[in-house]
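Quick one - first record:
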Amino acid sequence: MAAGAPGALGALRAGRARLVATCRGRLSPGSRQSSSLAGRRVGPATWAWGWAPAAGGPGWRRGFSSEVKTEDELRVRHLEEENRGIVVLGINRAHGKNSLSLNLIQMLSKAVDALKSDKKVRTIIIRSEVPGIFCAANLPVPTIAAIDGLALGGGLELALACDIRVAASSAKMGLVETKLAIIPGGGGTQRLPRAIGISLAKELIFSARVLDGQEAKAVGLISHVLEQNKEGDAAYRKALDLAREFLPQGPVAMRVAKLAINQGMEVDLVTGLAIEEACYAQTIPTKDRLEGLLAFKEKRPPRYKGE
């Protein structure tokens, strides 16, 4: 056992080094990388899969709805003026209660691929444009899920994939798949325990329990809960307020901070600190850092360009 310890320690250190190197390689499309990491990019976005009745029987199969309608199932809005830098992804599939059709999945993937490389994008809000229903992805910028209605099954799994979740008190959320004799298949069994703890996540999944906004806030599933307004968009308005808070910050720092947190939460503290150190180093040579120092000295708001 003693003889094997150095080898095990060496393997652990090598694993940590690879993880830190990967962290450096994922930071920015324009950042310099070593030759061994050159060309690496964050993989394509992964979206929750849906479940549909199996052909010829009462069972269920994993897959997507194949319906394609002429309406715009995904609306991408780049906000302007004081909200410049905020992008709203509005899911608009009223006839399917925002279930994930193949067409919608393809549109989401294309939108995510475009947004990942757009340095002008600071924060993304995912919301429903179908009243009463919510239903991101592997994005480098902050993402906020605005839940103003139902977020059940895949809808909640989409929300769990976001960095921050806000909801109206009247919203309904739950991973209800066990009622259909299946389990959450879009990341729910992995992301819910990370959000609220293992024991409580098991309780909610085993029982298929549906929570309202207040209950979701109490267990830590969402960050903010609001009384619903007459327009039915209280959560969206709160998400917009949060996005406005993020706008003045350095865009490179925001992306790197998100990466450091996400990667660090998957490893032990020592490796996490190494990841943080690697991420911090990526902010030092940026023009934004120099602009931040100059703006502080001149007592004016900084004008960051994401460089």
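second record:
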Amino acid sequence: MSGEADSPDGNGKVSRVIRIGTRKSQLARIQTDSIAEKLKGLYPEIHLEIVAMSTTGDKILDTALSKIGEKSLFTKELENALERNEVDLVVHSLKDLPTTLPPGFTIGAVLKRENPHDAVVLHPKNVGKTLDTLPENSVIGTSSLRRAAQLKKRFPHLEFKDIRGNLNTRLKKLDEQEDFAAIILAAAGLKRMGWETRIGQVLLPEDCMYAVGQGALAVEVRARDADILEMVSVLHDTDTVLRCIAERAFLRQLEGGCSVPVAVHTEVKDSQLYLTGAVYSLDGSDSLKDTMQTSIGAAAAAADKSQEKVDEQVQRVGVTASKISDEDQDRAERLGLDLANLLLSKGAKEILTVARQLNDAR
């Protein structure tokens, strides 16, 4: 059983305390507060306590993420706290969560996705411009190999350099120094921070496809905590869950991570789930991209399934969603695997191996 404390409220009644783990950054706190608010609205009797902590990724700010080579940069400390019963659930950006979770953990909720696309934030002197109209050799800041690979190919007149730090730090570097003409950030984070006015251009899939899970928030719990799993499961958004299962299955089959350029685009339309996936060389000159689709929504939602025993085996790429049709989840996972296998049959492994070697040698 989980280690939640109970606390008497003003009426002498005992109400449950649920502790939520989060990173310390302003964006992480905003994301966690939004989930806490939703839970409080659904379960007014619980007391929520937020426990903020720093992660390895927050502390190492002078090295590109892809160079650190650790898949759980922003999650390990939070999972350690979950394992030690110091917190009962943890809020993450889904794109930070590895496609294989440590034993004993599961993603109990994937919330409705914010805009998953990347956005261009311009230096104040370049307001009104786009990546197309920026002067030759303008320097664009991004620490993502995925963004750099796609944009180098699409905008050969620009230069790309690493920029690290949380959102606040990166915007400060952009605005207060003359090093960058623009930086690329996730539109979702900018929106959650209330900084939409800084978005100069949203990059559509033809310019830059997004990262697996980008724009979605995830709640990670101990897989055996049936009551906590049940409590957070109402936060699941069906379309987002199915899209992200397909994306995560695609990435896992490719054995991708932070250190290789892999990008996706998914859509649910007319009972079809569409997945476009791509792999790139570091400079974007070599790439493989394809689209596949599968039917979803035919099976009735399995809302009445027994919750007596939560079996860790029902996870799909780390996600437990017992209230969403098993058949649809299986189809989504199969879609990701099939598309990855298609790209692998065309030589994706070779592109990614070279990309990984070149990145390690940088």
